[in-house]
User: Fold this.
Amino acid sequence: MQRTRIQRGGVNLDVSSNGKNVWVFRWRVTMPNGQRVMRKRVIGSLERYRTKTAAEKAAGVFRMALLDKGATALTTITLRDLVRHFREQELVDRGEEGRAYSTRDRKSVLTKWILPRWEKTPIDQIRTVAVEEWLRSISRAKGTKAKIRNTMSVLFNHAICWDFVRNNPITGPVRGSGVRQNAKRERIPDVLDVEEFQALLEELPLRERVMLWLGMTAGLRRGELAGVKWCDVDFEKLMIDVLRSVVDQRVGKVKTEASKKPVPIDPYVAEDLLHWCRISKYASPEDYVFATDATRAGAKRGKQPLWLAKVMQYHIQPAAQRVGIKKQIAWHTFRHTYTTLLHANGEDVKVVQELLRHGSARITMDVYAQAVTKAKRTAQNRVVACLRARQNGLVENLCPQRVPAPNSQMAVTD
Assistant:
């Protein structure tokens, strides 16, 4: 009786045509005439995989394909195989700094959307039209579908990098030939009028008031606001270093490289922030500015930030309702409002881009030179001045009391 042979292939160090040491995965294929032929694929360089163990792990996607489909079908790995390889190579934490929230979000998109539909499909059989029709059938917001599309594109770029496929069906071979998916919002996000923001401030205690000032006038995203520590604040230079983002109580990187730029803080806002520092229980350099005092945090009190989604739900939104604000308020509302006020004040678009730390100039036009710190601080001070005008009895024409409807281009502040 002939014994069934299960092929696993093998990994060896070899020399490439350009003289570099590379790891090679080899397996055998039985031809129609019964002849056994050796096949091989380059896994990566010795510089990339310093040990054979690391190279063996990288070869896992090939071994899974051998076991699932046999040696003759190794070149047509499924999307499930590709996702497994992508997770092992791209989505692992390789340092203490942690991953950006967008990376963790990508894992969710793979699990919730992409794998259920495409996991058994060979990657070389996934077509542009099929993906576009599938996205069209999903009853979700345009932004969600754009995120799915972009994740699939990243996945195929990874496949091209590893020589699993030659083309990316999501982007297409030429501009305009890929999967079409508009990410434009279906509704314009709400922004607050100056009077509404002032009324909300007066309704809140100091801690939440400082949160709003920073969210509004420093343009911080929710995760960035939660991630600020006292050691990041320079009261002499009136600057905040944005070094981390905390989302769902997980510390990670900020959204983009541009997001790492320090942001100016207005002297008036710094005064409130300094007052909060003096009365806070947690004011050591490594404590979070808005640290949790929950008993369940135990020894980590001060070393864990507040859950800002809960602060919004149980403190800020109820306060907004009490002062008669009917708009949908979330943390990003203050960033949108800041953008709109800067635009209404006629600020230079490059200054706006620098203040909001946009990585791309698709919003604020990249044709302008880099904004200098003085210009950024002046623009910020104008916004703070107009927000304080009514409280101090100043002339009300410092800025419009009714914020104009946000320009569709300027109001998109990711």
